Amino acid sequence: MPDPRVRPATGEDVDAVADMWVALADEQRAHGSHLLAAANRSQARDLIAQYVHADGVAVATRGSVPVGFVMFHAETGFYETDAARGVVDNIYVRPDLRGDGLGSALLDYAEDALRDRGVDALAVEALAANEAARRLYESRGYEAHRVTLERSAENDTHSKDDA
After folding, report:
1. At 17, which helix (H) or strand (E)?
2. For residue 3, how many other CB atoms are within 10 A of its CB?
3. pLDDT tens, residue by residue, 146-162
4. Do residues 71 and 90 make contact, with C-beta atoms less than 8 angstroms apart?
């Protein structure tokens, strides 16, 4: 049975979700994200509105107030694949409400919606330094699939001869 605290987002939720997206992006800076949170609110709001229109956003609420959100989509692309993949793009719960199962309820909602769309595999990304997010996803059966390695362009610790 779906969690009654989670519902599909509507157009009326777009601004609240955009504000939470800024909070999420700002928090991710502590884990190594390069994304500028407030500077990207307008672009994020536009994307959120598109996701709402495509039934790809759900909100967790306290009463009628959104306090968390999840964004998700079924992947489409240029290449033929042997599995249809659903992607959880963003998940956020207000910090003072974490630990109450809302993050899991949002993830449940997204996974169920993606399964209903016929996906064979589910994917979610987390910054390597975000141990809390990684613990949540790993506890749900997610495993590392692809690893992105990054270094500073100013870092010159290797020589071209090493390559």
Report:
1. helix 14-28
2. 15
3. 888 998 998 666 655 55
4. yes
pTM: 0.89
For residue 86, how far is the Cα from the chain centroid?
A: 12
What is the distance between the alpha carbons of residues 7 and 22, in angstroms, rounded to a whole number? 21
Q: Both tokens of residue 119?
A: 């996906």
- Quick one: tokens of 86? 């659903």
Rounded Cα gap, residues 50 and 89, in angstroms? 13
Helix (H, G, I), strand (E, B) or coil at 116: helix
Cα distance between residue 31 and residue 28, in whole Å:
5
Residues 88/70, Cβ–Cβ less than 8 Å = yes
Q: Residue 83, class by beta-carbon neighbours within 10 Å (0-12 exposed, 13-18 middle, 19+ buried)?
A: exposed
Residue 48 tokens read as 């959120």
19 close to 68: Cβ distance less than 8 angstroms:
no
Domains belonging to the chain, first-starting first, are 6-162 (3.40.630.30)
Which helix (H) or strand (E) covers residue 125, if one does?
Answer: none
Report in angstroms the alpha-carbon separations of 151 from 136, 148, 158. 26, 10, 11
